[in-house]
Amino acid sequence: MESELAGKVLEGNILAAARLIGEIENEMPNAFEELNSLYPHTGRAGIVGITGAPGVGKSTLIDSLIGIFRKQGMTVGVIAIDPTSPFSGGAILGDRIRMQQHNLDKGVFIRSLATRGWAGGLSKATISTIHVMDAMGKDIILVETVGAGQAEIDIVRVADTAVVILTPEVGDEIQVMKAGILEAADIFVINKADRGGADNLKRVLEVMLGMKAYLPGEWKPAIILTEAIFNNGIEELADEIRRHKEFLTSSGELERRRKERARLELMVAIEGFLKNYIYQRIDKGDYLEKLIDSLVKRKTNPHSAALKIINRFSKQL
Predict the structure, then answer these.
(1) HSE, side-chain direction, 13 A CA sphere, residue 199
(2) Residues 237 and 219 both lie in one domain
(3) Model pTM?
(4) Are strands 140-144 and 161-166 parallel, antiparallel or unpaired?
């Protein structure tokens, strides 16, 4: 039986969805019960990850994409992930300001999430938030990550289509050579293409992509030049996103990617369950503190200490 909050989300209620996402971020137990009710109603939305270094124009480009998708009659969800301060624990969460022209559009739901120390350019609550927007009935969900680097490519495991944004004359010629970047992108976007160096960056990309031997029928990333602030190239990008979705569906790659996403979500859930169980059920008194003191004094090692916790966990089960 669906709860009252989940029922409102299924009706497309933005206030209910915002409240539930907030509870998910705060890891409130009832939030996951609500998600259980929503889960059977998910899996329909297309998920597009958009990543790139700070300053490449991700938010401006997403703002323009929203306009294109809305003209096509699609409802849009946007998850904008902002870095959390290591000092205050807060986040700016400013992407909704940069996309404010869509604030009054009932067909658009924009939500910022803080990383809260989560690695890989995402937030721990990202996949659950995708489920909420999916259950609301959003046709396409755009996920803007913190940035793109050698370690910040987890978006590949979350999105159906991964878009990597680069800009000329800021060292992105070197960036694309880093491990993981070429493999991360389904579509490359060279934004601010009115700057000098855009053609050179495109040539570098083409050379790098040409070094890979593509199998027959395998997807080869396209390179789209845009000037997001002027809406130039945005329709071409939207068409390429649609073309990639058609490829995923016809090739069976979409099913494989969604299976990988389910695997990631399962492992995150297991990790969270184990941590909560350890703190709530095993750590009676100062058990963990004693282990940590033993580690500091080099009386034990992290591997052995972890095995002790696992053995205690298995006995309690």
Answers:
(1) 1
(2) yes
(3) 0.86
(4) unpaired
